[in-house]
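LOG
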Amino acid sequence: MKKTNLLLTTLLALGVCLGAPLPTHAQDVSLLREIQEIYVDLHERLRPSVVNIDVQGKAEELDMTPFGPMEDLFRFFNVPTPQERPRMQQRRPRGTGSGFIYDAEGYIITNNHVVEDAERIVVRLHNGNEYDAEIVGTDPETDIAVVKIDADETLLPLTLGDSDNVRVGEFAIAIGSPRGFEGSVSFGHISALGREGLRGLAMQGLTFQNLIQTDAAINLGNSGGPLCNIDGEVIGINTAIVFGANSIGFAIPINTAKQTVPVLIAEGKVTRGYLGVSIDDASTYADVDTLGLPDERGAVVRQVQPDTPADVAGLKTYDVIRKVNDKEIANASELVRTISSYPPGDTVTLEIWRDRRSIEVEVTLTERDLLAERRPIDRSVLGIRVRDLTPSILQRLGAQEELEGVVITDIELGSPAEDARLLEGDIIIEVAQQPVSSSEDFFQLMEEHAEPGKALLIRYVRGSSDPDITIIRVPRQ
């Protein structure tokens, strides 16, 4: 059936559902049966190309108790809960997600957060056959990963669509393994496009969002599965949901994967240009007379990180970046995407608005060491593991850029820190009323003041909230 006929048929069906006048009962039943067959056919065509991914991770803490309705948000993307962490048990965790076949050679697209830190990955096809998979490449900043299996059977890749042509209101089909129920299909619509600023995802490193929003049902286990249009083309990769909302899910645009996946297959990672600035949309400063902005276009520099390309090139706070190599920059997100499209080592020309006039500045980009920023220090005290703050960590956590301290990367089970209700992502700024500016300061102060049987004051910041205080009670030896 041609696409126009399919759309017409579906629209007629919606009229039926909304109470539009029915020609006759027989015609109505015939119409619904026709639509039903269309969707059944879509599922039958797509299902063989969608896989279940079982992951066995490293031995670590695993949530063994339900957390009510909040688990769908926080466990889906491993974000700490804003309340007390549930008690956990020590065991080797297992997880499940989805993916889909990229080509007949056995390459499979999924989410980075599905396979990150996995020790063993098992891909299960629609027919029940299982294959061990290896990670080919991962890109945390887009939450895309590629794994590969060596299958002794014919694999059927899905057709990739064009997410730039997707429109709000179009129909969408999500397929995957929600809650482990493999091969589940749900139908809905494209609810919105270009969703940015999802802080929970940004905390986990998902820098490039620009997400597709859909009301097609997505649950735990759908992560990494395809979001398709009514032609059976993949338009997105399901990646996240919103807690407390009915049918609000997000997918990575497939055009992002079209750029990323070939690089992951060839190189194992994606390298991107790095400038080294904290920025805001220029529109935020449009009414600030002292900047004298000619319009609301561009990205305002809030801070220049030391020893970065921006610092070397002489960029300053309050500079407004309006063009990159003659490409106009509308806002902060566009600047990030544009700079990241250049490889490290490239020199770009920035048009800067400074002191009420335009100037040009040449900047040679470098590569951001994302893995180093995510790497915790392998030492704990009273159940706390920390790492030094970086500007990008502060930005992802939504904290003030001038904040000094250390960020908590892990809280051990049953520890004094857990009893004090500290969470991963909290920034410790004082220990025993003494300021903390580095992990070295933190461990030294803890060693000096954490006396057995005593209580210890910890001052910390959570997200964009004001500083708070908690008490850690040091166990008697």
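LOG (cont.) second protein
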Amino acid sequence: MVFHDQKLTDDQQIDFAAHFGPIHSSAQKARHHSIKHRLARDEIADISNLDGDGKVMEVDHRRRLDGLANRFWHTDASFRTVPGALSMLYAHVVPGEGGDTEFADLRAAYDALPQTKKKELEGLIAEHSIWHSRGQLDVTKYSPEERASLPPVPQRVVRTHPGSKRKTLYIAAHASHIIGMPVADGRLLLLDLIEHATQRQFVHAHSWRQGDLVIWDNRCTMHRARPFDTTQVRDLRRVTTRDVASTLEQAA
């Protein structure tokens, strides 16, 4: 859902999101507790290229390097035991061009799989870790305390959406491997599924303008940020609600 021409403070965005369920605290502060943060509230994630003083980040800034993994296809907070449900991303400032967000429909992607593949995926569990997605970019300089704050978690590869009752893939760049399968085979399977799910017929691209509030359901979509001129300011802020439980505790 897209709402144009909104005027929201951080507090208003958080209060609005709270109508839809408990809110995840930002994982950014868990893995960057030693740096200065720009936003005061723990419930809001700073999806921007600005440092703690509101200046465009240098190319080697650790939060900028960490945030580059948002260009991978992912679903918010799948690396938490209780993953994300709804995300609400609000645009304060957008660059002149670029910086779109693309969304992939994982329900339609599941429906399009051959029956033999659906059968193969039944009961599979993937391990999700934010450190895996960052490690793919060789962004690995995290303290033991930061790593311990977000341990790997298991999630179903196929789940049933609690609202529509439709089967949907649940995959992301955070998914490291399939539990019980050789790591190489599991990673190839996950890569094949992401490639399948991100065919153009399953993907929508949103071009941002200032004041846009975009809401999506992480339980049945993936998304990714697209490149832009990082000398220009891009200031988006996200609030994500918690799902009701781990996918392992919900219907397969």
